[in-house]
Please model this.
Amino acid sequence: MHDAKRIQSLIAQEVDSLIAFRRELHQHPEIGYQEHETAKRIQRELAAIGVQHVGGLAGGTGTIAHIPGGKPGAKAIGLRADIDALPMHEHGDRAWKSRVEGCAHACGHDGHTTIVLGAARVLQTLSKEHALPNPVTLLFQPAEEGGNGADRKEGCLDGRVLGPAIDQMYGLHGWPTFPLGVVASRTGPMLAAADAFEITVHGAGGHAAWPHLAKDPILTACAIVEALQSIVSRDVAPLDAAVITVAAMHAGEAFNVIPDTALLRGTTRSFRQPVQEMLHRRIRECAEHTARARGLRADVRFFANTPVTINEPQAVKRFERVATAALGADRVRDFGDPVMGAEDFSFYGAAARSCFFVLGLDEPSRRCPPLHDPSFDFHDSAIATGVEAMVHLALAQA
Model:
């Protein structure tokens, strides 16, 4: 009913416009739960092609869209895109560089959003030619970067907001270590659980020339960072995997003033809940006891708990079968071992059979920087492959 050549032809007609849309998003990044203009752009595009949608979801910036199809009572295929950017500066001189100081699409969510929107365009055109074999629901989700926007899915997956309940969910992520045009996934755990933490060290400020009259929170914060690095090597079983990273430290404003406080921010990663709980306990103990030994106090707070991303076996088999038929066996790979990156796509797995897959961005003539690198930019040449994979996943026999 919907042959591969027809789909490729429709994608080819859309790709230039999609690239322009992706670059427009890239120039106007917005962080989690603040993606108001991004949501407006998405909704304008959906309205222009006549796709029914509802905005104002998941804290105000999420959008759900639906294209009918299938037999009466059929459950939907879900396609998800994350829409938020990162609070970081962008490097480079590309014409579509971020225009927002301190905010950048350095994880490729502009590409993910464009791909799902491109799938909506193609599917909507096909639906006017023949009824789609499955109902298709598209989720444009805010706040993936630490905000757990996927957990705020009230009514979006069970049919209460728009369309029937979703039976299968698919999401993708651009991946710099896989070749351009390749897709890959794996059954079971694929990405780690992740928590964020903050440690506030409370001391007593003073003049930098008389440190003995102060209680230096910076020195104690440095000692805490060093102590935390012993947890994985000495408290985690060698066959378990875990990461503790302190990624930010903020203290003081002047070169000659010892501040009252120092703030540490970081993340923990693992693949098993007991390990994650142990990391929490030991981080709290190391921080509090290290500070107390120096006559200071440390307050520890954990937040933004993201579960392990676990791909359901039948959803992965369907992905592999559909992607192989659409793209060719040489462009469908096994993801390999799980990695310590985290994804709030994991929340969808609790409500629907889910498969998360990656889309290669690397080519020899243009090496792709790592995710979250200030020079990262989603590869426009990968958009067509992503759209093709998503369209076929929406159309294939459920």
User: Anything to note?
Assistant: The longest helix spans residues 4-27.
